[in-house]
Amino acid sequence: MENAPAPINPAIATMPLPTSPIGVMQGNMSRQPIMKQVGFLLAIAASIALGGYILMWSMSPNYQVLFSGMQAKEASEVVSILQQSGIKYKLDPSTGQLLVPAGKIQSLRLKMAAEGLPRSASPGMDILNEDQGFGTSQFIERARYQRALEQELARSITEIQNIRSARVHLATPKQSVFVRDRKPSTASVVINLYAGRNLEQGQVAAITHMVASSVPNMASDNVNVVDQRGNLLTKSTRDKSIAMSDNQFQYTQKLEKLYISRIVDILSPIVGMEGVRAQVVAEVDFTITEQTHESYNPDMSA
Questions:
Q1: Most distant CA pair in the chain, distance
Q2: Which of 77, 171, 193, 199 makes an SS bond possible with 203, Cβ 3.0 to 4.6 Å?
Q3: What is the DSSP letter of 127?
């Protein structure tokens, strides 16, 4: 008995064969086992995911280091400016350096320079550790040391509150072997203050004394401090006979308040608290006199 052919569904027999590539692929997939169909679909999904990841990675900006060697305080100021400007940034987990988009790095450096950042970029005394090579003259060594000293003083001055940046210029003439021919050293300090900030007279005096004590043969009177608007912040102290120091002024005020309190305490029981008004102006003589007296008695035995 011969095997009879399997019956063919007339609906399938009458369907047209696919001619497009997608239709052919669908027809081939329908003839495959279920496991192969699932594997093929997973491979397609994985390919789409990988392509999307590569596309997103290529579209993400490249990050570069904005400044290297910044201190933590300066880095926080830079981050604050970036946040206010709405600029994305990253922190390198291994080195802690600040990373910004490579396309904006030059404009950001110019913007930070306008804000006086970073302040620790100057090498200071570190330039003395650099290789000076053979044949370096004594003049070059002295110039390098003076430049390093100026930058170190500028660093110290910028640590004072309200000061954004500072520059120090030292004039140290070559000293003569004769004491009477020696010339004093002088210095000029240019400071850049934050907007709306000012320096108190005590802070200006601290700057002048710090610079003077750091340079040989320099007095604090020979240090001038100027702000970014060209205002001279140091007051001339040449006429010391009429210039009253802060301690003397405070002592005079304290003495005047003491006499006012005594006058009110004496008269208030008689005329009442509302009937007493006292004002005292004290003139105190702060003249200091030194006198040396030497006595000689020939009759006194040694």
A1: 170
A2: 199
A3: G
Domains, the chain, with CATH or none: 44-111 (3.30.70), 137-234 (3.30.300.30), 236-293 (no CATH)
CB-CB neighbours of 157 under 10 Å: 22
Residue 189: name the closest of 213, 165, 141, 223 by CA.
223
**Distance between CA atoms of residues 161 and 143, nearest Å:** 30
Eight-state DSSP code of residue 160: S
Q: What is the pLDDT of residues 143-180, one digit of tens each?
A: 888 888 888 888 889 888 888 888 899 988 877 666 66
Contact 190, 231 (CB under 8 A): no
Beta carbons of 158 and 141 less than 8 angstroms apart: no
Q: In this model, does residue 93 exceed pLDDT 60?
A: yes
Q: How many residues are present in the chain?
A: 302
DSSP state of 275: G
- Euclidean distance between CA atoms 105 and 111, whole angstroms: 10
What stretch of H or E contains 35?
A: helix 34-59
| Of the candidates 153, 132, 155, 154, the residue with the CA atom closest to the CA atom of residue 144 | 132
DSSP 301: -
Candidates 225, 188, 192, 187; CA nearest to 206 is: 225
Query: What pairing do the DSSP bridges indicate for beta strands 90-91 and 98-101?
Result: antiparallel
189 pLDDT exceeds 90? yes
* 68 and 97 Cβ atoms separated by less than 8 Å: yes
Selection from 61-65, 174-178, 209-213, 214-218 with the highest mean pLDDT: 209-213
